[in-house]
Amino acid sequence: MKNEILEFYKQTSCYTDLGLYKEFAKSLPDDIKTLCLLLRHQTIHPFDLKDEEQRDDTDSFYGDMTKVPKTSLIFENDLFPTAQGIIAELLRRDKNFSLNRNIQDKVHVCCREDAILLASILKAKGKPAKVRSGFASYVSKTDAAGDHWITEYYNEEQKRWIIVDADIYFNDEILAEYEIDFNLLDIPREKFIFGAEAYLKLRKKELKEQEIYYASNPITYGIPAAIRGLFYDFHSLMNNEIIFLHQPKYAKEKNFLLSEEEYQELDELANLMLEPSINFLKLKEIWETNEKFRILSGGMN
Predict the structure, then answer these.
(1) Are residues 16 and 81 in contact, defined by beta-carbon separation less than 8 angstroms?
(2) What is the DSSP letter of 208?
(3) Where are the beta strands (DSSP E) in the chain?
(4) What is the mean pLDDT of the chain?
(5) How far, in Å, CA of 237 to CA of 289, rounded?
(6) Of 290, 4, 258, residue with least CA distance to 128
(7) Shortest CA distance to 149 belongs to which of 233, 48, 38, 221?
(8) How many angstroms separate the CA atoms of 155 and 153, rounded?
(9) Whether 281 contacts 8, CB under 8 Å
(10) Which of 152, 226, 228, 238 is placed for a possible disulfide with 198 were both Cys, Cβ 3.0 to 4.6 Å?
């Protein structure tokens, strides 16, 4: 692995830079399993709060769900889009950053925030890490693959990138419910469909439209969903882990239904993204020269 690439992924963005909390992050466990389990006990996934049956569960993995304040946002992603903000809020609610955090003091965020939180801590420890976006059927409990974010970090001893899912690293009982029979701390490559891969397989008719979806309201299927995943992942590969509202303005204004010429332009980008380390310099060149991939539409833009 070229040193230039590893040094790039040690760098931070406005989303992964921990500022004054960098030293705190360094004090957290170095062991990836211990760290992921610790982080899993700091947050609640909003989808579980939306589920009425789980909301009444007094003995869930998170704790007594009935104690979560009804007045708090189910999705706190809007409040804490950065890793620094998440850690600051967790420590504001309770300085005891441990496995025993009270359920009412947990932050309600999704897979993206869990991914950037893990990546930010690894970066603070001097480890190359990157957030990735794509699709996974193992989180949806169906044959279709739903949008999902994970973290990759470079293992110096093994000389390879390792995929980690910090979002659903629960106990063995819950993992059994998801029918997950592989290691979430070293996810096999075939178990996760990166955004570019989903897009290209849909373009080649190797996947059906209903097999890829983005959990918007209403749910988005097929190519429009894959384009979102592709751009989330492209930005993340460039250390710019944009929030859910952010997408290139030109594509969002067309509701991700593009011309054939525009699809072909994305074909080129997606093919490079299949091997991001090999094509790192070409991807950086696109990042630096193609403005329309970076001019974003958001809540106010």
Answers:
(1) no
(2) -
(3) 43-44, 107-108, 129-136, 145-155, 160-164, 193-194, 212-214, 220-221, 247-248, 296-297
(4) 94
(5) 16
(6) 4
(7) 233
(8) 6
(9) no
(10) 226
Structure token pair of residue 74: 């189910």
d(C-alpha 278, C-alpha 273), whole Å? 9
Query: Nearest-CA neighbor of 165 among 271, 209, 178?
Result: 178
Distance CA 284, CA 182 (A): 33
Of 160, 165, 68, residue with least CA distance to 107: 68
- Token representation of residue 198: 């989903």
Tell me the backbone φ, ψ of residue 209, rounded to 5 degrees. -55, -40
pTM of the shown model: 0.96
Q: Render pLDDT for 158-181 as a digit per residue (tens, 0 to 9).
A: 999 999 999 987 666 667 777 788
| Residues β-bridged to residue 247 | 297
Q: What are phi and psi of 112, to 5 degrees?
A: -60, -50
Among the listed residues 25, 31, 8, 28, the one whose alpha carbon sits nearest the alpha carbon of residue 128: 8
- Count Cα atoms within 13 angstroms, Cβ side, for 42: 25
- How many residues belong to the chain? 301
Q: How far is CA 156 from the centre of its chain?
A: 23
Over residues 113-170, the pLDDT tens digits come to 999 999 999 999 999 999 999 999 998 777 899 999 999 999 999 999 999 999 987 6
The CA-CA-CA angle for residues 10, 1, 242, to 5°, reads 40
Residues 6 or more apart in contact with residue 219 via CB below 8 angstroms: 213
What digits encode the pLDDT tens for the residues 62-104?
999 999 998 899 999 999 999 999 999 999 999 999 999 999 9
Give the C-alpha separation, 229 to 3, whole Å: 27
**Is residue 1 predicted with pLDDT exceeding 80?**
no
Nearest to 78 by CA among 88, 86, 67, 70: 86
